[in-house]
User: Fold this.
Amino acid sequence: MDLSKLHIRRCFNKAAITYDLHSRIQQQAGQTLISLLENITQQADRIIDLGCGTGLTSEHLARKMHFKQFYAIDIADQLLIKARQRLRYPGMNVYERDFDTLNITDGCYDLIFSNMSLQWSNQIEQTLAVLMRLLSANGLLAFSLPLTGTFNELPALSRNHFLSFEKMCRLLGCNLLLAKTENKRIDFESQYAALTSIKASGANYVSGRDQTLHSGLSTEFRPVTSTFTLTYHIGYFIAGKTSHG
Assistant:
């Protein structure tokens, strides 16, 4: 595992206790993605959930889909402790795994699902190409992720190089079945409270800098007692395998 992934895993492991409470936007995005998916199918014999975290969205997906095998993976072993406690349905399996390391020897899936996780990929184009090859003949790839415009109120975190909606559509190309965006905003009592909440959700790694918000919480960002709004620009994508995909 490369250095950036080690930093990401460390951030999420530190947030294991507070993750569920501070991941409201992630949970809402997961519910939206599942609702969009339900309009296309409610049957997928073999499912894999990439970046399952503590399993909150995985559990919701499992209740909505008819499946035989469900694999939930994440790189943060402390989050997976909660996921294993939560995902005790027949046919569900939880593993520690980096989705960037999947390859065609991992078999095929009727649904590859990922909620607010693929932005942590170090090689998104390559990973998407592998995921499309891992789909069964009629399989679906359904995912959400933050796009350009997310955290614009926080310059340090907006440097995470979020991809644009247009680029994601180009990467999926003719396989794309559905694509939409929405802005979600959450109000905090101060900028400091917003940053503290991000850290409590584990999403405080600043890509390209090999560091986190740990130092920023006490230096760059000082407590300010005025309402602070944080914006998430979220993209939802569903792609299907074409006859030449």
Observations:
- Confidence is low (pLDDT under 50) at residues 214-222.
